[in-house]
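To illustrate the input format used throughout this study, we show a single complete record. The first block contains the structure-token representation of the backbone; no residue identities are included at this stage. The design step must infer an amino acid for every position from geometry alone.
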């Protein structure tokens, strides 16, 4: 197993949440005031503090803030005990769970008549039934940005009017932080000549780097590659062995789907390279190792092929998105 040197742990919370009794609405308001008056910090740390507070407030083990970008929702902050809910994840808007969240039209507990009316089908995530769900839209600069959502697959509790008011206030606080950070980024972009010819918007790169929606053996290859990133080699022989196939058999089956192993691996590498560069702020050397490149130069050349930019230049342009 490789030692990538990449630290994947979450940033320290900016608020001592143990000081608050979240069953008290007054304490919830006190917490919101503290969150809104925090000194300048990275948006990621600020949002993670909101998510952790909400997870305790609504008694949910899962919470996330999602940004809708075209046909996908990007998870920009989350707290979860589910392994496949993570920051940087891109989820299709037609995913049954995301569809249920979007259809909920803002704050609503799963037990309410309103939710049953809007989403009569049972809601599940990662194969587990959702026992309670509370969500609110994020309106940033007067436009729909995404959502803040908390859900539990373990506990069931009806939410009251104070819960609905709390998540509404929380959504407004999160939106305000995003607005402030967006304004700072735009100002910095102008100062740094961000609009360099040929450089796309960060969200465009995210869409290009999303994991492929593959099926059959191609889908299995993508899943194996995802589990091996940063841990094990990503060679075709290694992946074929994990699937119980010979290298030649795997190549033949992928050809039948009109895709190659190299294409799938490239897409997975591209996806994780952006997360490692921007979200994790990992070193170029550790990223090249995690993505199983022979050396730093090979990774740099591949990244230039994907984006037209070197990894270091890409990070310099987009580091404020973390």
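Output of the design step:
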């Amino acid at each position: 197993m490789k030692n990538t040197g990449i630290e994947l742990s979450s940033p320290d919370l900016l608020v001592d949440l143990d000081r608050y009794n979240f069953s008290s609405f007054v304490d919830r308001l006190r917490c919101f005031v503290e969150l809104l008056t925090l000194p300048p910090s990275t948006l990621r740390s600020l949002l993670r503090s909101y998510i952790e507070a909400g997870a305790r407030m609504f008694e949910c083990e899962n919470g996330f803030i999602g940004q809708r970008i075209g046909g996908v929702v990007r998870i920009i902050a989350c707290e979860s005990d589910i392994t496949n809910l993570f920051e940087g994840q891109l989820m299709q808007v037609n995913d049954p769970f995301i569809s249920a969240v979007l259809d909920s039209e803002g704050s609503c507990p799963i037990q309410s008549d309103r939710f049953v009316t809007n989403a009569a089908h049972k809601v599940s995530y990662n194969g587990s039934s959702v026992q309670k769900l509370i969500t609110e839209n994020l309106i940033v600069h007067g436009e729909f940005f995404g959502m803040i959502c908390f859900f539990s697959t373990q506990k069931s509790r009806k939410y009251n009017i104070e819960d609905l008011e709390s998540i509404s206030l929380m959504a407004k606080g999160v939106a305000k932080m995003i607005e402030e950070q967006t304004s700072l980024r735009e100002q910095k972009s102008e100062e740094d000549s961000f609009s360099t010819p040929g450089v796309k918007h960060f969200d465009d790169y995210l869409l290009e780097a999303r994991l492929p929606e593959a099926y059959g053996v191609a889908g299995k290859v993508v899943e194996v590659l995802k589990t091996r990133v940063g841990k094990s080699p990503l060679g075709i022989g290694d992946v074929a062995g994990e699937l119980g196939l010979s290298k030649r058999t795997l190549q033949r089956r992928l050809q039948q789907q009109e895709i190659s192993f190299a294409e799938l691996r490239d897409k997975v590498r591209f996806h994780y390279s952006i997360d490692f560069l921007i979200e994790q702020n990992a070193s170029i050397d550790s990223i090249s190792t995690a993505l199983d490149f022979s050396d730093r130069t090979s990774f740099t050349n591949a990244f230039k092929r994907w984006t037209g930019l070197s990894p270091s230049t890409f990070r310099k342009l987009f580091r404020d998105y973390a």
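Structural context for interpreting the output: The chain has 13 helices and seven strands. The beta strands are 62-69, 72-79, 90-92, 124-125, 128-129, 132-140, 143-152.
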